[in-house]
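Render this sequence as a predicted structure.
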Amino acid sequence: MSNTTRDKFLSLVKQLTSIELGFVANDIAPTSGKIIKKLNDDESIVLKSFECTSYQRAQKRLQLTQAREQQNLESIFALAAEYVSSGINIDKLELDWLVRYTELACKVYSANLQELWAKILAVELTHIGSFSQRTLKLLAELSAKEAMLFQRAANLVCKIGNDKTDKLLTGIYKRPSIIDWFGSNPRLHFNLNKLGLNYAHILTLVELGMLQSQEIESATIKSKDSVSLSYLNDKVDLQVGSKDIVFCYYKFTQAGNELLKLVSSKRNDMFFEQLNEDFYSVCKINRNPSVKA
């Protein structure tokens, strides 16, 4: 380990735990610390400030942790103040929920995740019961990378027909008839990988508890039936030209739906165009012009 690397490591340990370590050659009697680990024949690690007891050092570490957690809360509540509307219901806010929220929020260090936690508080103050404690726990265990993955899924959320439930569409196919069993009737999978969300990512969202574990098939759509496809602010009315069409999708869990309230979905024009083309190729759809939902 180079001297530069060592310095960075020792600095990291001190910042995280307040523990001060040092390196000393074995042939030199340490004057500024107590040897706690012999690394090899030439060198050992010493603990500085060894005049303090282990209890005192632990108290110093706890104080450092508490100070950081306090800073986290201060940042989150300051951010929440920007989102709070005039119609807040502080008197109806459950104390158990608020205590649990505070316990979890204080351990959020990422700036992006702190903003999510701030939005949660602001929404909950306006609409009591919007977020369960289970969702809070899920969010507390969410990494910044996993949060970004959820954002990608949120950017691809659609609604079909009169069902207002958010769905992550994965494919479409024509249910085979007796004659079709003797030929090929492949299911068309939407190329979500091209849009930054592959199958492994979907499994991760399932494991995190944001998507339901089983892919779902829609009710069969008959020939000449009309169905609408909604994507963000756009809706396209479609008239199915083939019979027995089925859509495949994943539904969001309760926690996933609650977290969708926090995310500002970003329109992906490529995705919307791809959906239109794929629907047309399988369903022989008669497409009407896009209208605002």
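Summary. The chain is about 40% helix and 20% strand. The chain has a mean pLDDT of 82.
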